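Hi, here's the filled form for the chain we discussed.

Project: internal
Contact: R.S.
Residues: 205
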Amino acid sequence: MIKVGLTGGIGSGKSTVAAFFATIGIPVFDADKTAKLLMENNPSLVAGIKAAFGEAAYDKGLLNRKYMANIVFKDAYQLNLLNNLTHPATILAAQEWMNQQTTPYCIKEAALLFEAGTGGGLDYIIGVAAPEALRIRRVMLRDGMTRQDVLARMNKQIDQSIKMKLCDFVVVNDDQQLLIPQIIAIHEQLLDKAAKAKQAIECIE
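And the returned structure, exactly as it came back:
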């Protein structure tokens, strides 16, 4: 089975692309959502976050997201500290999940795939790109954030032009080009690659 990464900067629409892959039967692991669940349900991770950021990091057993955002998105050191705590557990969860899948390929969706160095073990990576102005507008409307807050989060990620050069496939989500034909084209290529990989393994065996 082929293991595929799916990434894109904030506001690029990678979750929309991931949702479509899911509708055509491709399993998708949401690394960002899993990390949030682990930060509230993994005892050792919870203890580590409290030790690093104080008891105020949690409110009635739930991660105090506003408190944490005000810390980590204004201080690169604090963001790296949080990532170093959460990424190992998330990477392990993704590996275990992918090893259980039986489809020709499966997808790991993660915003910080390159920034966090969590792309190891993946065969191909799909990037989702969109114009910066559109990305900013999407996030402001979606999350009620100010333009300055969105830009602050963008600055914590690798520049989109660099990120897309690191990807094997790119989906352009600019509200101009149709998404579905782009996704279907990639889907067909991955099915072909998976079939060839399977044939190669069978020949060896």
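Let me know if anything looks off before we file it.
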